């Protein structure tokens, strides 16, 4: 009766209660393998995460990369330098790691950053850090924090005393045991040992074990070995999981064109699959090819009308292409779907303002402030300051920028705009200080460099003007947009491209 109750709780997703009943049953009969496997499955599913979506490249993987083909790849062939393939005059803001802003916040979006360790270590380890200074292995441990809780009577399985060879020959036990070791205990070494022996016992014919070998190699940083395992598994069985993992391998190797070829081959077996189309949209987004990215996000929206990432990405594309009315439609769709957070109301307020629906602007930003956290409070106040500047309330804009700096003392765009206001107030020294602070915090944005150069030009500091302006032109020509603003080489440059984003993390089941 207790076994039936445990199975019923397991089917209902009540894994903690199921594990408690299994513990009581194992105290009566410690050799019951059925109860043992059921408890393993319950403990595993308590901390199970989708490691395809959850992986992120840490500082060790980015700086100690042994698989780099070229340090200076051709434009449009690398995710490390997305700005080289920029077309048109549309310019999106960038994150703290220097990557163009995407429609959603997702793992592995901080991959495009400086290759120097000095630039990498410059960002402090705070709650608003764009990239924690950790390796991918330690991050995977933090994902399943429930496994860190001590169990009464010690751990469920002593891995050091486990006979790997014995259980590798029993398929009904080997697979649940591998998932328990990999997801619950986070011991990749023991999991790899079990997977190798189980693969040898099945004579290298089981595609499932090949995928698990690839996962272990990927976690250990052996990317090429993981690629071989996923390719071999794909020959035995065409599954979406293997295709997605192979795509992630090529993205990790900074081979986006090969990843796109893999996506196209996967679409031959699984036409219009949303997961594969999403990967293609993300890759084109990383290459800064917004037109192709928008094409695939629209295909995703046709297949799945409730896909939050596609809807948010289409909305941010229309916003930064001066189509706030169209962006407003997509953000309202997210609100109808039940998304309720500060980022969404922030974007709704911006779209309503630029679409001249002024009666909803204040209420949207009030809700955004009430729902805000320490991570997004500075961006919300920064956007409100732009609303105040547009309506001519300089005093309110100055107060909002002060609140943004208080919320995040490394908000470079707020420092830049605060310097512009100080120029209008006649405080030359303070303005120069704010421009230099903004340039030191985020040297990938061009506004502080232009403003510093123009300020030096006004005070007749010719040498400083030439040096700073040269750096500004280098940044802007590198992004392919210098010709647009050199025609209007007069006036202070404030960050009129608003820092607007929607932070919607894809649900991990």
From TrEMBL:
Domain of life: Eukaryota
Secretion signal, residue range per the UniProt entry: none
Record-level GO BP terms: non-motile cilium assembly
UniProt repeat feature TPR, residue ranges: 342-375
Alphabetized UniProt keyword annotations: Membrane, TPR repeat, Transmembrane, Transmembrane helix
GO cellular component term, pick one: non-motile cilium
Transmembrane segments: 463-486
Coiled-coil intervals, chain numbering: none
Name of this protein: Tetratricopeptide repeat protein 8 isoform X1
Lineage, highest ranks first: Eukaryota, Metazoa, Ecdysozoa, Arthropoda, Hexapoda
């Amino acid at each position: 009766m207790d076994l039936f109750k445990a199975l019923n709780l397991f089917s209902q997703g009540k894994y903690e209660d199921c594990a408690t009943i299994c513990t009581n049953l194992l105290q009566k009969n410690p050799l019951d393998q059925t109860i043992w496997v059921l408890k393993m499955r319950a403990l595993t599913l308590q901390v199970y995460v989708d490691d395809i979506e959850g992986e992120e490249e840490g500082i060790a993987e980015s700086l100690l990369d042994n698989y780099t083909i070229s340090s200076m790849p051709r434009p449009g062939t690398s995710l490390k330098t997305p700005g080289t393939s920029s077309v048109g005059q549309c310019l999106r803001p960038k994150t703290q790691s220097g990557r163009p802003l995407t429609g959603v916040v997702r793992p592995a979006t901080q991959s495009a950053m400086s290759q120097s360790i000095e630039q990498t270590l410059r960002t402090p380890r705070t709650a608003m850090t764009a990239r924690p200074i950790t390796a991918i292995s330690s991050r995977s441990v933090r994902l399943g924090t429930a496994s860190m809780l001590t169990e009464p009577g010690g751990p469920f399985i002593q891995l050091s005393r486990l006979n790997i060879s014995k259980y590798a020959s029993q398929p009904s036990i080997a697979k649940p045991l591998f998932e328990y070791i990999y997801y619950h205990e986070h011991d990749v070494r023991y999991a790899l040992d079990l997977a190798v022996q189980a693969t040898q016992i099945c004579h290298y014919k089981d595609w499932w074990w090949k995928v698990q070998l690839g996962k272990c190699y990927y976690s250990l940083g052996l990317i090429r070995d993981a690629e071989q395992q996923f390719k071999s598994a794909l020959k035995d069985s065409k599954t979406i999981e293997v295709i997605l993992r192979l795509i992630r391998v090529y993205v990790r190797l900074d081979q986006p064109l090969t990843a796109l070829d893999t996506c196209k081959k996967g679409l031959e077996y699984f036409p219009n699959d949303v997961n594969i189309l999403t990967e293609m949209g993300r890759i084109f987004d990383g290459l800064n090819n917004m037109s192709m990215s928008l094409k695939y996000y629209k295909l995703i929206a046709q297949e799945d009308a409730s896909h939050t990432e596609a809807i948010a990405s289409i909305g941010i594309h229309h916003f930064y292409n001066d189509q706030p009315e169209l962006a407003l439609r997509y953000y309202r769709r997210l609100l109808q779907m039940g998304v309720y957070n500060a980022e969404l109301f922030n974007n709704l307020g911006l779209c309503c303002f630029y679409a001249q629906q002024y009666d909803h602007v204040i209420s949207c930003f009030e809700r955004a402030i009430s729902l805000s956290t320490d991570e997004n409070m500075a961006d919300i106040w920064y956007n409100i300051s732009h609303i105040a500047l547009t309506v001519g309330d300089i005093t309110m804009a100055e107060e909002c920028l002060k609140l943004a700096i208080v919320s995040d003392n490394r908000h470079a765009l707020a420092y830049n705009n605060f310097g512009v206001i100080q120029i209008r107030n006649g405080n030359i020294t303070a303005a120069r200080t704010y421009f230099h602070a903004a340039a030191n915090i985020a040297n990938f944005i061009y506004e502080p460099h232009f403003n510093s150069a123009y300020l030096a030009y006004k005070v007749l500091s010719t040498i400083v003007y030439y040096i700073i302006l040269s750096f500004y032109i280098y940044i802007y020509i590198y992004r392919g947009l210098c010709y647009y603003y050199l025609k209007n080489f007069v006036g202070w440059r404030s960050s009129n491209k608003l820092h607007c984003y929607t932070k919607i993390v894809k649900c991990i089941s």
